[in-house]
Amino acid sequence: MEGDGSTSEQAAVFTELDWITLKNDLGSAQIQTVETPMTKFYRKFHENPFVPIGCGLTTLALCYGLYGFSRGRHGSSQKMMRLRVAAQGFTVVALMMGIAKTSMHAASG
């Protein structure tokens, strides 16, 4: 019974020291992989370029449609709102394809 108490004390000491070492190891790894917002944008754009393109198309169609509506051009405004819906659909499909590609890459590697 004395062995059981000393074993649990040794495990507790090992666990306390182990998390400190783990924290130091993770901290040094995180310092090496700091990326700026611009480098993150470039990395994400190269991974799946269709999502930002779809977002840009959606924004342009929305802005041009609202501009046409404010100028009284209801026909062109209606076409732009339809284009906006199509661009949003394109963006969602591109996002889902990127997620599928990433999950397949993670499963194979």
From TrEMBL:
Q: What is its main location?
A: mitochondrion
Q: Which UniProt keywords apply?
A: Membrane, Transmembrane, Transmembrane helix
A GO BP term here is: mitochondrial respirasome assembly
Give me the Gene Ontology terms describing cellular component.
mitochondrial membrane
The protein's location, in the record's own words, is:
Mitochondrion membrane
Which residue range or ranges hold the HIG1 domain? Answer: 22-109
UniProt xrefs under PROSITE patterns: HIG1 (PS51503)
Q: Where does the sequence pass through the membrane?
A: 50-69, 81-100
Any Pfam family from its record, for instance, is HIG_1_N
Q: What is this protein called?
A: HIG1 domain family member 2A, mitochondrial
- The protein's organism comes out as Chionoecetes opilio (Atlantic snow crab)
**Originating gene:** HIGD2A_4
